[in-house]
Amino acid sequence: MNFREFIFLTRAPGRKLLLGRLKDISVQNPLIKPIMYSTGLIFLFNGISAHLKIKNAVKEVQRRKEGLEKPLYELKDEERVNFPWNSENINEWYYRPVKITGRLAHYKRIMIPTTVNGDLT
Questions:
Q1: Which helix (H) or strand (E) is 7 found in, with range?
Q2: Do the strands 119-120 and 115-116 form a parallel or antiparallel pair, or are they unpaired?
Q3: Distance between CA atoms of 64 and 94, rounded to whole angstroms?
Q4: Which of 43, 46, 100, 119 has the fewest CB atoms within 10 Å of its CB?
């Protein structure tokens, strides 16, 4: 919608009729005007907050994509114990692919039994 269409719609005859009816209603019931204004403000606030949520969600998706596009980092000897990320550079490591190699500690594994129709197999 361009500016000319907007001006045309605001000067349309139906708008004058609607505003006239609203004035008649507000004369009959003086509380209707504050109720309509507050309702409009609530809708405006909800629209703005929804827009901000969508904007933040798009930023978060973009941040995750950038992190996943980083090259694979393989942790070597000492880094497997003392990780290279800390509180200062944690934002650089979010969603970055990391490869950890090593020997499995079999004594720390937990066996999870499978169930079929609620019965252990």
A1: helix 3-10
A2: antiparallel
A3: 8
A4: 119
Query: What's the rounded Cα separation, in Å, for the pair 45 and 35?
Result: 15
Please check whether residue 46 is in contact with residue 71, taking contact to mean a CB–CB distance below 8 angstroms: no
Q: Where are the domains of the chain?
A: 70-105
What does pTM read for this prediction? 0.53
pLDDT band at 81 (very low <50, low <70, confident <90, very high): confident
Taking the alpha carbons at both ends of the chain, their separation in whole angstroms is 66
Q: What is the pLDDT of residues 27-58, one digit of tens each?
A: 777 788 888 889 999 999 999 999 999 999 99
Q: Tokens 């204004």 appear where?
A: 37
What letter would DSSP give residue 114? -
